[in-house]
Amino acid sequence: MLKGLLEHIGIEPGRLNFSWISSAEATKFVDVAQQVAASVKALGPARYLIKKRAEVA
Amino acid sequence: MTNKIFTKEEWTKALQGLSDSYKVFVPVKDGDFHTFKPMNATKAPDFDFQNTRLSARSLVYPQAERMFEYSLDENDPEANIIKETPKDYSPQAIVGIRPCDAHGFKIVKPNFDNKEYRDPWWIQHFESTVLVGLGCNQPCSTCFCASVGGGPFNKDVLDVLIYDLGANFMVSGLTEKGEAFLSKAQGGKAADDAAVKQAEALATEAAKKVKADVPTDKLKDKVINDLFAAPFWQDVGFACLNCGTCTYLCPTCWCFDIQDEVLGKQGDRIRNWDSCMFPLFTLHGSGHNPRDQKFQRVRQRFMHKLKYYVDKYQGGVQCSGCGRCVRYCPVNIDIRQVAELMNNY
Amino acid sequence: MIEYTAIIRDTAKKLLKDGKVDVFIGYKKGTVPMMNEPVVISDPEKVDTLHWDSLCGLNLCNYLTKRKDKIGIIANGCNSRNIVTHILENQISREQLYIVGIPCTGVIDHRAVLRAVGNKEVLDVQEQGDKFTVSGNGFSETFDKAKFLRTNCAVCTHRNPVIYDEMVASPVKEQEGVDPFEDVKKIEAMDPEKKWGFFTKMIERCLRCYACRNSCPLCYCPTCFVDESKPQWVGKSIDPTDTMTFHIMRAYHCAGRCTDCGACERVCPVGIPMRQFTKKLNKDALEYFSWEAGLNPDARPPLDVYKPDDYNDFVK
C-alpha cells in the first residue's frame, strides 16, 4: 500500500522496489539487486521528494 | 494630509506604476479566499473582500525565515563561522490591509522592539513596509476591533487609508511614509469636500456595525493566579484539537521556534512560527513537559492574550479583534466568550 | 437531521440521570453559523446545550481516546466506524460506551455553501428537512441539502451506524450505485509528472497547523513523528518537501483505518482536499484486502494480520 500511495503521488513505478530474500538466497539477491539497479538507472535521477536546502524566506 | 480620488481602474494602474519603487503586495483571490500576493500583470488585485484568510503578518514576519547560515566544510576558510543571512529590505507596501491587521503590528511591536531587545529582522521588515489600509465598510459579524482599541477605519499604524466609495477609492496619506508612497502614485485627482464627507460617513456607519461589547475592561485588575486556577478551563478546552489554526491565522501571535537544518556541509539556522497549542512548544530537553495537557495549552493562549500581555505592556489585550480565530477555529472555540468568562470571573 | 436534537437531549438526560453514563459527548450549537462545538456534559440538567444538525461534521470519536469513565456518545455511520476502530486498537472499550446511533443523511459542505452565495458572509442557517436556507446581509437562499453534501458524504455507503446501543430514528436508506473513487481513478490515469504536480499544488498553501492530523481520531500517538526531536524525522519549516513528507506520512498512518469521515478536510483553515491521499489507500485496501475500516468489531485490520493469500504482487 505504501508503494501504491507513493506511486499515486508521482514517484515513478520502478523506483520503489520490495523484495523478500532469505539469507540463503544469494543468487536471488544478486538478481534482484541487478534488476533494481537497472530499473532505477533507466528512470534517471530522482526528481521528486528530494530534500534540498529549505525553501524559506 | 493628501486626499486623492482614483477610479478603481486608475488605482490598479497606479499600483502597477508603484511596483517600480516598492514591492507591492495586494489581495488576490486564490481559490475560495483572498491572500496577499506580489502585484503582477497576470492577476489583478481584488479589493472586494471582507478580510484575507491569513493576516498580513507573514510579510513582516515570515512563517519560516533563515536567520543564519554556516559551512561545515573543513576546506572552506570560513568553516564553522555562523553568518547572518543577507536579506532584501527594499521598500514594500501592503495595499489593502485591514485596519485590524495593521493594529496587529502595533500590538506585537513591544515584543520585537523594546528597550531590552531588538529583533533586527522584524524591525527592518517592519520599517521597510508601507501599510496602505483599506477601511471596512462592512465588518464581519465576528469582528470586534472596536472592543479592543481599534475600529473599521482605525488610522493607528496605517500610513495610508483607502476609503471604498463605490466606483472610486479615496486615498488618504496619513504619515510621511504614506505621503511619499502617494506622491509616486500616477493619476487620480484631489478629493473634493463631497468625497471627504462621503468617506467620513462610511467610517461612522461602519463603526456602528462592528461589535464593540466584548468585555476586557476588568482583566487588568484580576489576580493572575485566580484566573489561572479558574474552574472553566477544562470546559473551554474540551473541544480543542490543539491545532495551530488560531495562532497561525492570528495577526498578533508572535512565538517562534529556532531550528538548525544541516544538509551535507551546509547549515542553516531557521526560525519558524510556533504555536502554544502544540505539545512540543514547551517540551523541555529533559523530557518533562510543563504543559502536557490540552487545557493547559488552551489556557496559556487565552491567559497570554488577555492577561499576561495586559499586565506586561499596560496597553490593552493582545488581540486586534479581527475575528479569524472565531471564524476558522474548526471546533468553534470563541475568544469573545472566553474574554467574557475571564473578565467577569 | 435537526429533528434528532430533541431525542438526543432526552436520551442523554435519561442516561445521565440513571447513572448509565458519567458523561455524554455531543455537539452544542456554535456561536458562528455553520460551526458547531463538541461538548461533554455531565449534569443531566444541562442536556439542553446538546444540538445536532447537518453541519456537525467533525469526528467525536476523537474525544474518546483513553478515557476512563463511562461515556454516552452520539455516532453516525463514519463516527461509529471510528469507534469500532478505536475499540479494535484498544483506545476505548465497548463496555465503557453507550452509543446513541444517528442515521445520517450527510453533512453540508460549508465551503460549497459559501461559494454558492458568492463568499458573502452567512449570518444564519435554518435547516428544514432536506432543504436549508442561508441568509446574510441582503440575501436569503434556499438550497437542496443533497446538492450541498460534503464530497465524502455524497459517496458514503455507510450512513447508518454499524455499532450502537440505541438509535435516535430508524435507519436511513443506504446510497447505491455511487462510485466513491471516481476522483482517485482520475489521478491514477495521470503520468507521474502530472501526479506530482497535482499533489504539490494541492498542498502548496499548507501552514503545517496540523488541524487535519488533530481532528482525526486515528491520530492518537502520544508523540507524533513530526513532533519528535530526537531524532528529528522531518523539517519543521514550511519547506515544500518537508510539508509533502508530513502529508504522505500522515496519510500512510491511516492506511486500512480511514473511514473517510472527512473531518480532516472540514477543519483545514486553507481548504486543502487532503482526502486525496487517504482515499487512494482506502481504494487499495478495498481492492487488495476487500477491506473497509471499522465495519466489523470482530475482524482484525489487514495491516495488522498476515494471511497466506495476502496481496503480494509487488514483492520481487
From TrEMBL, chain A:
A Pfam cross-reference name: FlpD
Keyword set includes Metal-binding: yes
Signal sequence segment: none
One GO MF term: oxidoreductase activity
Entry keyword annotation includes Iron-sulfur: yes
Keyword tags: Iron, Iron-sulfur, Metal-binding, Oxidoreductase
Domain called F420-non-reducing hydrogenase iron-sulfur subunit D: residue spans: 2-44
Name listed for the protein in its UniProt record: F420-non-reducing hydrogenase iron-sulfur subunit D domain-containing protein
UniProtKB/TrEMBL annotation, chain B:
Ranges of residues in domain 4Fe-4S ferredoxin-type: 229-261, 306-338
Presence of keyword Metal-binding: yes
UniProt keyword terms in alphabetical order: Iron, Iron-sulfur, Metal-binding
Pfam families associated with the record: Fer4_22
Molecular function terms, GO-annotated: iron-sulfur cluster binding; metal ion binding
Name recorded for this polypeptide: Heterodisulfide reductase, iron-sulfur binding subunit family protein
Organism of provenance: uncultured Desulfobacterium sp
TrEMBL record, chain C:
Keyword S-adenosyl-L-methionine: no
InterPro entries hit by this protein: 4Fe4S_Fe-S-bd, 4Fe4S_Fe_S_CS, Helical_ferredxn
Source superkingdom: Bacteria
Coiled-coil intervals, chain numbering: none
Pfam family, one: Fer4_8
GO molecular function: iron-sulfur cluster binding; metal ion binding
Domain 4Fe-4S ferredoxin-type: start-end pairs: 249-278
Gene3D superfamilies linked: Alpha-helical ferredoxin
Keywords from the named record: Iron, Iron-sulfur, Metal-binding
Protein's name according to its UniProt entry: Dehydrogenase, beta subunit family protein
Organism the protein comes from: uncultured Desulfobacterium sp
